[in-house]
Amino acid sequence: MTVNRASARYEGFGKEGKGSITTKSGVLDKQPYGFGTRFEGLPGTNPEELIAAAHAACFTMALSFGLARAGYAGDTLETSAAVTLDQIDGGFEISQSALTLVAKVPGIGADKFAAIAKEAEMNCPVSKLLDCEITLEHSLES
Q: Quick one: three-class SS letters along the chain?
């Protein structure tokens, strides 16, 4: 079992409040977040950006392992994730994570690649965690 940790601190309330996020690894160390970073484009991060990063990384690693299990030697996989936060019934909800993948995988056919990518999309741990629509667009480069 692997346990990873992060912490958040928030000072003040509502729009005027300001927070920071720190991860055990130190990759984030008192990284600012708050209303301005989440909704107004101010410098810092926000929960949806962190979820997008986690989803892109998790899916890409799952795909890498799926391709290796199928006997393919790697070149490159590049994935971006766009996480959508919608206001619904006076609250907020993450409604979608849209994955976009560009891959170079020598010797693989489009159908085989699509099947392995779909399996990775459905079975990476972050996909399993998210309770929203997940989409995947992909392209193979030669």
A: CCCCCEEEEEECCHHHCEEEEEECCCCCCCEEEEHHHHHCCCCCECHHHHHHHHHHHHHHHHHHHHHHHCCCCCCEEEEEEEEEEEEECCEEEEEEEEEEEEEECCCCCHHHHHHHHHHHHHHCHHHHHCCCEEEEEEEECC
